[in-house]
Amino acid sequence: MQNQSFVTEFILLGLSENSEVEKILFVAFLLIYLATVGVNMMVVVTIIYSSALLGCPMYFFLVFLSLLDACTSTVVTPKMIVDFFYNRKIISFECCMSQLFAIHFFTGAEVIVLAAMAYDRYVAICKPLHYSSIMNRRLCGTLVGVAWAGGFLHSIIQIIFTLKLPFCGPNVIDHYMCDLFPLLKLACTDTHMLVFLVFANSGSICIIIFSLLLVSYGIILFSLRTHSSEGRQKALSTCGSHITVVVLFFIPCILVYARPTSAFFFEKNTLIFANVVTPLLNPMVYTFRNKEMKNAIRKMWRTFTVVSHEY
Questions:
Q1: Total domains in the fold of the chain
Q2: Residue 177 belongs to a domain
Q3: Collapsing DSSP states into helix, strand and coil, what is residue 176?
Q4: In the predicted model, what is the mean pLDDT of residues 29-54?
């Protein structure tokens, strides 16, 4: 068969075919999306508004983490919300490929940002005397640049071999979004090698980086035994937030992409958690467990309140 696609659009089955259930899901996911964008943008504005926080590498990385979470949710959730109004959920071939590229671009960049945040905590706790010289602005900017470049490289690899797949007839995707494994099931060719490539590009990266992050946090926690009680408690609180976010991000990715077969019954539910719920939980974990963030939010809110009263 010629390596050519005859499909111009795909039909998404979505999360449910029950209209009553879809109404409930519409309200739930609309509220989640609005909260996700609102909370993440609040974190971004708060850190940028507070020069003291923005000058700290940890919060500098947190700005980009929040931006990536907001973008990840925006790539997936609005389309899913609109589709709840339609019995026939259609996405064009071009939009499908764009969604596939965007979701892997933002999540690929987030992997590197999380690794950079872990390295920042390692230097802060294990090498405190050299922290300011190591985690300077140049290094932080370089790490963020590497994150964007890494996300682009990861995503472009995915999209190149997906565009080469021959879609010659079947166009019904049992999913709420365009992703690799659902598309591989529709390809009119043997996809066993492509499943392996997905594992090599996405699954192995998730496993390796997740393992390295766990080892780094293990080293950090082990080194805390020499710290004072107050310093240990503060470091544990910060590391606890980081570890929570890392687990929330990597576990769903490993479950979906780090497997030898494209068959996974809970794939839709797992990716809903990863792409819709986790972007809301991440800023809440950092905000509600961080005194500096809460104080900065109160200060910014008081300033905005005073300014609004003057007008």
A1: 1
A2: yes
A3: coil
A4: 89
